[in-house]
Amino acid sequence: MEREAGSVQTLNPEKLLHLHNLTKDVSNICRKQLRSYLDALGPLLRARRLLGDLMEGTGRESVVGADRNFTELSELYQKVAQRPFDLRGQLSTPLESVATQVQMYDWEYLHEARGDRDRKVISVISPLTWVVTYSSTYSLSMLRQVLAGKQDRDQEGVRSFVLRACLIYLLFTKHRDLADLFSGLRYRMEIRKSPQTGELPLVTLSAPFVSIRPPDKLLLVATGLSGGTAFEELLDLESARRVPDPLRDQVSKILREHGEEA
Fold first, then answer.
1. Is residue 124 classed as helix, strand or coil in its secondary structure?
2. How far is the C-alpha of 6 from the C-alpha of 44, rounded, in Å?
């Protein structure tokens, strides 16, 4: 992701189209699988696991450290809310209820492709990495449009997205077993930041293999043919052929330590 790899240097437009279709099929399988994991693990991803009765919800739920968690949430929110979101005000309790279903949004970034004679800023999507956060008025792509001044701004919608991104970030950092759980399911958790959303920490989950960005000249050709300014990275075939298996690696190590052939 966000890198150019030598394995695609020899691509031509025909091979690019083939690899694009292949990547799309693999991405769809991974997205569907990850969606099912997120739904099944919904009870572990509830925001009230952090705040308990400091957040609106049905029934009482006492959480050890809830006051400390709310203080950390408030400090984080104040840190990230100003630029580029231009949000004011402080959080107060009880915090509004947050829907338990986690949404998945494509991870994307801006890349300036440079050719012999021209340059173009391209929005590049990493089709095997997703930002996960609680549902809000805006999707991630809509929020980016708002921040770029390309869509009308709803202040409460912006606040909602920022708050929910902060909540799920704290949930994953406070409950580190969640990252281990997804790793066991072969999806890697990372905290990322985007120039478009400032210091806002975004939780991402990625497939066990990577996607890569073709050279700039090919990017310019591809976007020129489509007439657009967006491009999806391509599956790195070698990484897909060598999908890691952490459990297998651990067992193989133990076998070797006991003098057995792995």
1. strand
2. 40
Sole residue written with tokens 């049905």: 58
pTM metric for this prediction: 0.91
Q: DSSP of 166-229, one letter per residue?
A: HHHHHHHHH-THHHHHHHHTT-EEEEE--GGGTT--EEEEE-SS-EEBPPHHHHHHHHHHHTSS
> 149 is written with which tokens?
């001044």
CB 205, CB 107: distance < 8 Å:
no
Q: Each residue of 37-78: pLDDT tens digit? A: 999 999 999 999 999 999 998 888 999 999 999 999 999 999
Residue 228 lies in a domain: yes
Distance separating alpha carbons of residues 105 and 47, to the nearest angstrom: 19
Question: Residues 172, 25, 233, 135: is their CA dihedral positive or negative?
Answer: negative
Q: Are 215 and 9 in contact (CB under 8 A)?
A: yes
| Alpha-carbon gap, residue 51 to 130, rounded angstroms | 25
**What's the number of CA atoms in the CB half-sphere (13 Å) around residue 210?**
10
Length of the chain: 262
* Residue-number span of the structural domain to which 201 is assigned: 6-257
Please indicate, yes or no, if residue 36 is contained in any of the structural domains.
Answer: yes
The amino acid occupying position 187 is Y
Alpha-carbon distance of 134 to 168, in angstroms, equals 7
Structural domain count of the chain: 1
| Letter string b/e over residues 59-90, b meaning 16 or more CB atoms within 10 A of that residue's CB | eeeebeebeebbebbbebbeebbeebbebeee
Cα–Cα distance, 68 to 75 (Å, whole number): 11
Q: Is residue 1 in some structural domain?
A: no
Note whether residue 95 is domain-resident: yes
